[in-house]
Request: fold
Amino acid sequence: MIVAERKPMAEIVEMVQDCKKILVLACRGCVTVCSAGGEREAEILSSLIRLGMKKAGKSIEITTGSLVRQCDREYIDEIDQWDGQYDAVVSTACGVGVNFISNLRKDTMVYPALNTTFFGGSAEQGEWTEQCAGCGDCVLHLTGGLCPVARCAKSLMNGPCGGSVDGKCEIHRDVECIWQSIHDRLASFDRSAQMEVIAPIRDWSTAGHGGPRKVVRDDLTV
Amino acid sequence: MSFDPVITLFSCHYTSQQSCAAEGKELEQLGFPSSINLVRVPCTGKLQITTLLKAFEDGADGVYVVGCPEDGCHNVKGSIRAAKRVAAVRAALEELGVEGERVQMYHLPRGLHPEFVAKGKEMDARIRDLGPSPFSN
Reply:
């Protein structure tokens, strides 16, 4: 899922300083699962914005709503039900949602309530870890299903650097050296010889270095 | 600065039994501060962050939660969950530039114990020291 976390309140309150009424809009997709932007978090955020504005000696009227997702055109259309009830939307979706509303609602100011951080999973309750960098050229079939692009601090493609000690990364002792893990996992399948294969110089154009990316499925377009 | 604070206490049903003793008069007789509005809940683990924030929105100068000892919650982890949510509210208050001490969590023994009154007095004194809520503009 896309993992995100709430922006600092001072930053959010500053965004809405000149607003009289706002729509705090939750997304019931990924950010609900990572407890950053779902309906409950939108209620909390609404309360905190009201308190922040009160502290500044201002009042603000807040409508709190939610969409199934904020990354599909048909769901964005549902914003129309709140027409006239806000000066701006404060979206608790990931950055995709903020962009989608901005793309589709030319007259609507949209502010992000979250910092979108990474593609990850829930390692344990209340903890999420990065697993994928969305680089567009997956090598997981060569690395035992563990991603060196996202999970190696240096995104190395040919084994660990000199900083790996006891299976841990030199950036922090809490971070596993993913190349050690790749080695151990390949060895458990008797495929450690795969480590000897030199990875070619990587073409990062698929990772966004060639500009914004786009996927088109002709079989799905009408 | 002298003022009459408004404090909201959310207390575990089991920990606030003083509030029922002597037809509800015992707390008053023991000197429990009149500034404190007691809300009894079945378990503090039921409290949501929004509940605590709403107390501030409704005009509380301070908010605190009294739950079971961490290792003695009737619902096993209720008071531990409450403490986590109190900590989250405290962090959010500090993000807004407001004293985090305005929200507190206490783990107290269940039943009739003097600590319940003592912590009420402590909270009352703390909020009097801090002054009116910055949200009361």
User: Anything to note?
Assistant: Helices of chain B lie at 26-29, 49-57, 78-95, 114-130. Chain B is about 35% helix and 15% strand.
